Every structure is written in C-alpha cells, then in structure tokens.
Amino acid sequence: MVVPGQQNQEEKVFYPPEDLRVDAHVPDFNSYLELYKKSIEEPEAFWREVAQEFYWKELPNGQLLQYNFDVTKEKVYVKFMEGAKTNICYNVLDHNVLTRNLGEKVAYHWEGNSPDLRLTITYSQLLKQVCRCANALKKLGVKKGDRVAIYLPMIPELVYSMLACARIGAVHSIVFAGFSSESLAERIMDAQCSILLTADGVYRGEKLINLKQIADEALEHCREKGLLTVQKCMVVKHHAFRINGNDTCNKLQTLWNAECDVWWDEAVDNASEECDPEWMDAEDPLFVLYTSGSTGKPKGVLHTIAGYLLYTSLTFKYVFDHHQDDVYWCTADIGWITGHSYITYGPLANGATSVLFEGIPVYPHVGRFWEIIEKYRVSKFYTAPTAIRLLMKYGIEPLQKYDLSSLRVLGTVGEPINPEAWMWYHDAVGQGRCPVVDTFWQTETGGHVLTPLPAATPLKPGSATLPFFGVLPIILNEHGEELEGEAEGYLVFKKPWPGIMRGVYGNQECFENTYFKKFPGFYVTGDGCRRDKDGYYWITGRIDDMLNVSGHLLSTAEVEAALTEHSAVAEAAVVSRPHIVKGECLYCFVTLKDFREFNHSLMDELKRKVREKIGPIATPDFIQNAPGLPKTRSGKIMRRVLRQIARNEKDLGDLSTLADPKVVEVLLSQRCEAAA
Ligand code: WTA
Nearest C-alpha to atom 25 of ligand 1 is from which residue? Predict the structure, then answer.
C-alpha cells in the first residue's frame, strides 16, 4: 500500500499532527501497517499479548479463535479464548484499583441535564457502588445467567447496575430510556428478564418524563401477553429530585406497587460494599442489546465476555490514543452500543477518566458541549455527525466563548459523515489541530472495525479509512464475487475478530439468516462500501431496508407495522429522505381504508402511533396520502420508486415492471414539500 494522497495531489488529505506522534501508541503509518500485518498473519500471538493486560482466573486451552462462517457447512459460531475464566467487572474495576494503583483516579465526572448537578466518582468509589448494587440484585433473587432489563437515563446508577450484573454473571439488557413502553415490553419479553431497573423520572432539556409510568405500562403489556417474567422493579430516585426535599412521588405521581417495586436507595445503600466476582467462562454471555431488524422485529445482539473485553479495550486505547492524563468524553447514551463499548467497558478497561453526560447539546444553551469541554479540559471527544450538524447551524460564535485548547482527538460515529460537517468539526471545533477519527462499526461488531488511528492514518474527510487490527474487510459484488482494488459493493468480513457478536438472543436461525445467508462464508454488514485507489473505505450507507435517523437504525418494516395498526390505514410504505441535521428522516406513504379522510388530525394521530409503538426517534417527518402504492405485478412494493418521489427526483428509473403506472403520477402530484 502506498501512503495515501501521494498519487492524487488534488484530493484533500490531512496528515497527523507532529505533536501527537511524539508519544502515540501507533506513531506513524508504517507502524500501523506492521501491527496490522501481525494481527492478520499471527492472530494468536497478537491477541495473546493483548490478553496479558488482564486478569484470568484460568487460562484458555488451545487455539484462541475458533469459528465457522459458512452456513452451508455447519452451524455458524465464533468462540474466543475457550476454557479461560475471568470476570469483566473485576478487570475494569478491581484490577485497576489493586494492580494498577488507580483507586484514587477519577473514573467519571458526571454532569446531569442541569449543569449544577455534578458528581465525581473515583475507581474505588465506583467499585464500592457496583458491589453494593450487585449485592442488592442478588438479594432480589438475581442469579448467574438471569437477564436484567435496565431502563435508566444517563445517571451513574446506569453504570453501577450494568457492571453489577457483569460482576454476578447476570446478563444486562439495556433499553434506551427514550423507547416507548411497547418497545421496552417487547425487549423484556424476548429476553425473559427477571428484574427491571428504572428511575422515577428524568428531565430531558426542560421536558419532564415519567419513566416509572412507562416502565409500569411496559410490565402491563407483558402481563396482557401472559409473558410477565419480571418479578421486581428497582426504582432509582433521580438525582434531580433528591435536592431540596423535592419529592418525585408527588411531582410525577409515581404509582407504587408494593409487591413488585423497590426503591434503589433502600435496596442498595445499606448493602455491603464487598462482593466476590463470579468467575465466568470466556464465552458466557455478557449482554444483550437490541437493534432494529429488517423484518421489523428487533434482534437481541449477544456479546460474550472475554472477546468483548479485549476488543473494546484495544480499540479504545488505539483509536483515541489513550494516555493516563487524558479526559475523554463520548456524548452517546449508554442505551446504544457506543455507550456500552466506549463509555463503560473500553474506557474503564484502560483506567480512563471520562465525562458522563446526561443532558442534550442545546440545553440550557447551544454552547453546552463546548462549556463541558472547557470545564473538564476534555482531550478526546467522541460524538455523532447528527450532533455536529445540529451545532453547525449555530455558527462558530458559541464555540468562541470557550477554551477548547485541551482537545487532541475528535471522533465520530453512527452514520457516514458528510465532508462539510467533517471540515467544520476539524476546523472550527478542533481548530485544525485535531485528527478526526471517523469510526465505522455496528452493534454487531462490538467495537470499531474501520477507523483511522490519530497519529498514524492520513485522513480523507468522509472516509472511515482502514481496518482496525484483526479485521479483514472485503467488498463483494451482487454475485458474491470478491472485488479487488478500487471497487464498490457489499461490505462483508471473512474472519471474526474477538468482539464480533455471538448470536441473536435465543434465535440461531435469525442470526444465520440475517448475517450469513446472503453470501455464505462471510459476515454481511448490510452496508454498501467503496474502496478507493489507496485502499481507503468509504461507507455509502445501508443497502437493506434500514434507515439511519440521527445515527439510530430503524427498519422500514417496524415503522410500517406501527402505521398500519391505526384503524384508518390499509397499507403503508416508508422510505428515507435526506435531512440536513438527522442525516435521514422518515417519509411515509399511507393508503387509507375506504371512506377515511386524510387530514391534519389523522397525521397527528399517525405520528403519535409511531411514537407510542417505537419511541420519539421514529417520529415521521413526512406523511403522504397514497391512494395507491407502486407495485410490481407480483405485488411487491417498489420502494426504489417511492424513494425517488420522496426525494423529488425527476428520474424515477425503469417503471416497466409496474402493475399500474398511473399510481405514480398521482403520487408525484401530491408529494409533500414541507415536513408534516
Ligand atoms: C452506520 C453504531 C458510516 C452503518 C456504532 C452501520 C456508519 C450502522 C458509521 C450501525 C460511520 C455507523 N460511517 N456509517 N462511521 N458508523 N454507521 O448498530 O450503517 O447503531 O451499519 O452501531 O450505522 O448502527 P449501530
């Protein structure tokens, strides 16, 4: 491989700043190439070395990585470090306190939605809180292997409880606290969780949300379906309501079910601050995290202990070039994979100091992010393109009020970043000094798979650049043939790395069908990708029926199912339309039943329906009345045509297979110009 940018002088390439290279873990491009080569040619030696950083109660027997990706041969599986015994909570807490002497180091600077809510938590304090919570969970009956549903806002208790589960060998299933009661119920039932953790309420900006009520409704849904497995619901009194004797029970009118509900304070505060870790097998489950499925039903992506620990730890160390004096801040919510891997496990495994932020970027003012960077002297900052585009709208004035000179590396994740947003991030936020690491990965990959390393990789705005150690990307054409050199097609992986998913919870068939069936022998990401002449990868977006709204994946089928639940709707088809801040947004076509009228109040009802079924992130931006949908003669909806209509593209492509071409004319004449 040549050094990128040398062949084409016109292409914009940004080289790593000299000062970063002085003490970087991977100080130049050649070091990256060497390490990468080793990771691919001698994976056993490579990962054995990484494993030495951690504590193993028992060592693995035999070969570290074992797998089968060929669905036509036998069952698809991945195993890493079989035979080894460890505990991930022990490794990210006790090991730091006892072996690395980091007990007094700050693990988290927590800042609430309101800037005056702050808490500093050291590694030894974190360990004690986690042990207390672990003991409380045990007392509530949680045992090794049980699933625990966690529906909490970004408060320290969220970190305590996930690590407490890991400590006692329970499997956490965290549900983003912006999901609706039905989405929560669906996830609780799928994993048959025995305990639910939630909070009384939370402020998001100025909006008060009654989480306990949503949690109660979720349990009610489970009961109605005859699938209520939750026996106890532990409720955290939110920090915002603890001050000034502010009683949330009154404010939120929290209903209390004495048989099931337990206050966190009462269960946890008096529990012992010592709790022996449960020694787990390397391949025991660590957590389930749901992600949208193309059939509309969310899939419980399963990750296991040892591989996930090593992979999140190593990616964090290299991708953010972590050093002990860094202050790192990832703005994601722990309810998503980015939070699991790069707020909790990866940073803690490295003994990092992080900012844990509950709020939103524009409350109480649009400079909130920059204020926090100045306040905590953040050096490594990780956010999403949608947040960058939102903040770009306010110009550079809010930035100029703050001292951002502590910043060293800027990261982005969640969707392709448009070069304009990349440049603003680089020039305005990073003042031209900080490399932008555009990290491509998925809930399923566990950690970064395509990413630059800040002191080693020349950057091209909009490209996730090159593979991380141990990752072998391949581009296939429609026929499953491997394409060499410059090419565009399906992004797949031929071999596993330690952090890849191990399955879909309780559903091997769905696991194989979704990821391994289309091209036997490969893990299929579902993303399109282009490789340029320098070997750089450019993600072109999803090529299945998924949408990426503000970095969150939604399936069109999921939204269509919500719309057709409304009594007025006969049929619905949902496509994506580009959106200046969210990246993509939902454009919905609905065919009404006879004699039903399409009007504003119906549109509001439909939006409410989607919010109730899925959550506010799925709220449609456009709803168009569709007296008929463009279908093939076999009855398949031609989404390609709908997508063009939604985007106001004049060229609708080949319409010869349409059963009734007139349908398209009607849709074109009625398309929505402005958001509903
Ligand atoms: C998209 C989030 C381009 C992609 C970690 C992927 C990206 C999906 C990038 C996974 C990026 C994520 N560039 N696209 N840097 N990062 N994506 O599971 O379509 O919530 O398949 O994981 O987001 O979303 P998920």
Answer: 442
Q: Tell me the CATH number at 191.
A: 3.40.50.980
Q: pLDDT per residue over 351-379, tens digit each?
A: 999 999 999 999 999 999 999 999 999 99
367 and 477 both lie in a single domain: yes
171, 277, 606, 668 from 94: Cα distances, Å: 20, 10, 50, 63
From CA 191, how far away is CA 172, in angstroms rounded?
10
Which of 227, 246, 278 lies at the terminal end of a domain, its last residue?
278
**For strand 261-263 and strand 232-236, is the pairing parallel, antiparallel, or unpaired?**
parallel
Q: Which among 477, 512, 542 is the end of a domain?
A: 542
Looking at the structure, do residues 503 and 467 belong to the same domain, yes or no?
Answer: yes
The reply to whether 578 and 537 lie within a common domain is no
- For 575, the token pair is 């496509």
On whether residue 407 sits in a domain, the answer given is yes
Pocket test for ligand 1, best of 334, 439, 548 (most atoms within 8 A of CB): 548
DSSP 552-577: EEEEHHHHHHHHHTSTTEEEEEEEEE
619: which 2 tokens? Answer: 């709220």
Per-residue pLDDT, averaged over 191-197, amounts to 98
Contact 16, 30 (CB under 8 A): no
How many beta carbons lie within 10 A of that of residue 560, not counting itself? 22
For ligand 1, say whether the CB of 192 is within 6 Å of any of its atoms.
no
Phi-psi region for residue 557, left (φ > 0), alpha (ψ -120 to 50) or beta?
alpha
8 A C-beta contact, residue 124 and residue 103: yes
Total of domains in the chain: 3
In terms of domains, do 538 and 553 share one?
Answer: no
Find how far residue 114's CA is from the centre of its chain.
24
State whether the beta carbon of 468 lies less than 6 angstroms from ligand 1: no
Neighbours of 284 (CB within 10 A): 19
464 lines ligand 1 (CB under 6 A): yes
pLDDT (tens digit, 9 = 90+) per residue, 296-329?
A: 789 999 999 999 999 999 999 999 999 999 999 9
223 belongs to a structural domain: yes
Going by alpha carbons, the residue nearest to atom 10 of ligand 1 is 442
CA of 586 to the centre of ligand 1 (A): 18
